[in-house]
Specification:
28% of the residues lie in helices and 34% in strands. It has 5 helices and 9 strands.
Length: 181
């Protein structure tokens, strides 16, 4: 009788990631994580891996629109923490903090509500997203969270596109990726 070792989070993620050529534009190899999100057991194992890594070190989880919401909200619930959405500009009511950053083809702006991190002392935040590519969005999200009075303790992504060197945009930050491609 033989036993099989359980799959690691990286192996689960690799097995549940589909590559789509030339999306959203020619020459881009899109990493589609839909298979992971639709498999409740695989997704639960990946979330638990992240929760185990950060448990006790953060006070709130913040997710970057849109796939950061899919990961961040259930992760925060699993860790018994609050969740803060980081939204594209114009999607939140009332007063907001905003951060504009450069893209390859222009600029983008992200926002959080002014009271998103309101506590007596700035909460420790885990910033989550699906993929770390060039690092521009993650760097802007860090600046945004900190301008809103919180401290980014770490950045967790499912997949890092290492060849794009996104970590270089995040000097001095703890960045964790389950899988580096």
């Amino acid at each position: 009788m033989t036993t099989t070792e359980p799959m690691t989070a990286a192996e689960i993620l690799a097995a549940h990631t589909r590559e789509v050529a030339d999306f959203p534009q020619p020459g881009v190899m899109f990493k589609d994580l839909t298979r992971l999100f639709r498999d409740p057991d695989a997704f639960a194992l990946v979330l638990q891996d992240i929760a185990d890594r950060w448990s006790g070190t953060v006070d709130v989880v913040a997710g970057i629109e849109a796939r950061g919401f899919i990961i961040g909200a259930p992760l925060a619930q699993r860790m018994s923490l609050g969740f803060v959405p980081i939204r594209k500009a114009g999607k939140l009511p009332g007063e907001t903090h905003s951060q504009t950053y450069d893209l390859e083809y222009g600029t983008a702006t992200i926002e959080v509500t002014a009271d998103a991190f309101a506590t007596e002392s700035g909460p420790r935040v885990l910033l989550v997203d699906d993929v770390l590519a060039t690092g521009g969005t993650a760097a802007a999200a860090c600046r945004l969270v900190e301008s809103a009075g919180a401290q980014v303790v770490g950045i967790e992504v499912l997949l890092e596109l290492g060849f794009l060197a996104g970590r270089e945009q995040l000097p001095g930050r703890e960045v964790r990726a389950i899988l580096v491609d």
